[in-house]
Design brief:
Elements (H helix, E strand, L loop, with lengths): L1 H13 L10 H15 L3 H10 L8 H8 L9 H10 L4 E5 L2 E5 L2 H11 L3 H20 L7 H11 L3 H13 L2
Antiparallel strand pairs: 1-2
Helix pairs in contact: 3-5, 3-6, 4-7, 7-9
Length: 175
């Protein structure tokens, strides 16, 4: 199974050498470095990397656990896999006043999105979970809670503003 999995990754990695960016040696070097780091990951870490590429401008551990997990990637494996992605410099962690947030450089995000695009069914399921996660966060808000609740909501939503936009964009495209 691992050999078949690696074949798919090799096909995806081949995409990096084609197109206009193939003329840019620095871009090729950066992407080759990313590809090398990805090759060192196990299957669950690669799967997590591809799935967290759905996030825009960062995410929390709770968000990753809600969006990236299913039968193939259990929730109890996300923390360790995410930690390994940080160790490989594919994901960055930031300590904020609201807790830890994770993010990827745009080059890594684009690389990971090309990988998830190979499996359209998985891509749709991940986008659906992403949309539901951010939609449920808004539904939980009680508008009658007053100014303190509005301030708390603002503090909670501002870091995920782009994720919320992406979630609603996806919801608008569902048949």
């Amino acid at each position: 199974a691992r050999a078949a999995s690696l074949d798919g990754w090799s096909d995806a990695l081949g995409v990096l050498g084609r197109g206009a960016r193939a003329d840019l040696p620095r871009q090729q070097t950066r992407e080759a470095s990313i590809a090398w780091s990805v090759e060192l990951l196990d299957d669950s870490e690669r799967l997590l990397l591809s799935r967290i590429s759905v996030f825009v401008d960062g995410w929390t551990l709770d968000a990753a656990e809600a969006v990236a997990t299913d039968d193939r990637l259990p929730v109890n494996s996300v923390f360790d896999a995410l930690d390994r992605l940080v160790d490989h410099s594919l994901v960055q962690v930031e300590d904020t006043h609201g807790g830890s947030r994770f993010r990827m450089l745009e080059t890594v995000t684009q690389f990971a999105r090309r990988l998830v695009a190979v499996d359209l069914a998985d891509q749709r399921a991940v986008r659906d979970r992403h949309a539901r996660f951010f939609q449920s966060g808004l539904v939980l808000f009680d508008a009658g809670g007053g100014p303190a609740t509005l301030t708390a909501l603002g503090d909670r939503l501002v870091p995920d503003e782009e994720n919320i936009r992406a979630a609603f964009d996806h919801l608008l495209t569902i048949d």
